[in-house]
Design brief:
By secondary structure, this protein is α+β, with helices and mostly antiparallel strands. It has helices at 40-64, 66-102, 130-135, 168-175, 196-202, 235-242, 261-271, 283-290, 292-323, 325-333, 338-374, 384-410, 414-418; strands spanning 108-111, 126-127, 140-154, 157-166, 180-183, 191-195, 209-212, 215-223, 231-234, 247-248, 250-255, 276-279. The chain has two domains: 55-92 and 294-418, no CATH class; 113-274, no CATH class. The strands form two sheets. Strands 1, 3, 4, 5, 6, 7, 8, 9, 11 and 12 form a ten-stranded mixed β-sheet that branches. Strands 2-10 form a two-stranded antiparallel ribbon.
């Protein structure tokens, strides 16, 4: 048998291959000695892939679970739209009252002590003798009494409409009279005049009879909406019907000049101490400032908004974490830190809440357009301020709700998570 050849090609030994081929561009700039060469392109590529993966995973998870995401987005959207619409209705109602009062043409509103500027809550408590007393104040040119009465039903339907019982001759001297589109003004016993919005909502026409206050009233005319009440009757007819002769709810006062309204209000306040006397131009601001119940209502809404978004996101994300236990275990096993896992859950929650805010604002705008077509007397004032508040509350509540699921996910043991079935 031939001897085994010794040397570099002997049996069991293969020629040594070059570790770093000379044509390898990465290793061409090999440092002196056998030190492992620094490879910036390779390391930066790994870091970039890892960062992109974590950044896109949150959006991918949201899109992957379409049904749960849609339900969560809708829940947040309803909360945002509800806050915007309810506050908008409250502000719109006050704003509508103030605007129609300002459009009458009076300069000062004269009310009894402790009266509400929300005129529907004002009863007939002021004697008619106030008319002569008010006229004695320097600067007063005209006074008209108004008896405000809340009509709960019209033609069997709930309406909650303010009826203004007025002395038409003095009211016309202050306001310029009704801007009639049909019929005539108040001239006969138990006449009614209705504005165009209410007439359209109730489908009433001139000559129709309206049972009210145990009497049969006749619709005599229809006036353009925008000033005073939505429904008018003669003062003496309503006084007789409700049993309050020679009483009024408030008085509208005309001065020599609208620029002197503040001065006239101060002069009236000196003579009638304790009464609520408000320049018409300030009615809207005073209403907002003094509506204590409205402020409490808004505070309750904001608290409810936070709770709703908190619970919605908490439930959605907690369920998601349970379902994705193995996925989170894999993330932890390949090196994702606890902070990265927390960040992932919070980003998912933020995306859900952000989508809910956008949909909620769209729903609120749709409600602002649609509700007055179903309820013509409803006024909704959507403001940017409350859109921002409702959006912030929805996102803040959602992020708070995501904290517990995020911390629970971050604290998972990778080994147990990978074995989870």
């Amino acid at each position: 048998m031939a001897a085994v050849e010794e040397g570099p090609h002997r049996l069991g030994h293969h020629p040594r291959q070059p570790v770093r081929p000379p044509d390898d561009p990465v290793h061409a700039a090999k440092p002196p000695g056998d030190q492992f060469p620094w490879n910036p392109p390779m390391i930066s590529s790994v870091v970039r892939v890892n960062t992109d993966f974590m950044a896109n995973l949150a959006a991918a998870n949201v899109m992957h679970r379409k049904t749960r995401t849609a339900v969560s987005v809708l829940a947040v959207a309803v909360e945002v739209a509800m806050v915007m619409l309810l506050v908008g209705m409250a502000n719109g109602t006050l704003g509508d009252i103030a605007e129609r009062l300002q459009n009458v043409g009076a300069d000062v509103l004269f009310q009894p002590p402790d009266a509400s500027l929300i005129l529907g809550a004002t009863s007939a408590v002021m004697p008619m003798q106030y008319v002569d007393l008010i006229k004695q104040v320097d600067g007063v040119t005209e006074v008209t009494p108004v008896l405000n009465w809340l009509v709960a039903k019209i033609k069997g339907e709930s309406r909650a409409v303010n009826l203004w019982a007025i002395d038409y001759p003095t009211y016309a001297r202050i306001s310029g009279g009704f801007d009639l589109v049909e019929g005539r003004p108040l001239s006969q016993p138990y006449d009614l005049v209705m504005d165009t919005v209410l007439a359209e909502a109730t489908a009433m026409r001139v000559g129709d009879m309206l049972p009210m206050l145990n009497h049969e009233f006749r619709l005599a005319g229809i006036t353009r909406a925008g000033a005073g009440g939505r429904l008018y009757a003669r003062l003496e007819d309503v006084q007789d019907a409700i049993g309050t002769p020679d009483k009024a709810s408030f008085f509208l006062i005309k001065g020599r000049s609208a620029n002197e309204a503040d001065k006239l209000a101060r002069a009236l306040q000196e003579k009638f101490k304790g009464h609520k006397i408000t320049p018409i131009a300030q009615v809207s601001k005073v209403m907002q400032d003094n509506a204590v119940g409205l402020q409490q209502f808004k505070q309750a809404l904001t608290g409810m908004a936070v709770v709703i978004s908190f619970l919605v996101v908490l439930l959605a994300m907690y369920t998601t974490i349970i379902e994705r236990t193995r996925e989170i275990g894999i993330l932890r096993a390949i090196g994702a830190s606890q902070g990265k896992v927390v960040q992932l859950v919070i980003v998912e929650s933020f995306l859900i809440c952000l989508a809910g805010v956008v949909v909620g604002i769209i729903l609120a705008m749709a409600g602002r357009w649609g509700l007055p077509r179903v309820f013509p007397t409803l006024s909704i004032d959507l403001s940017r301020e409350w859109a921002l508040i409702a959006s912030s509350l929805g996102i803040a509540g959602g992020l708070l709700g995501s904290l517990y699921p995020a911390l629970k996910a971050a604290r998972m043991d990778p080994v147990q998570a990978l074995n989870f079935e």
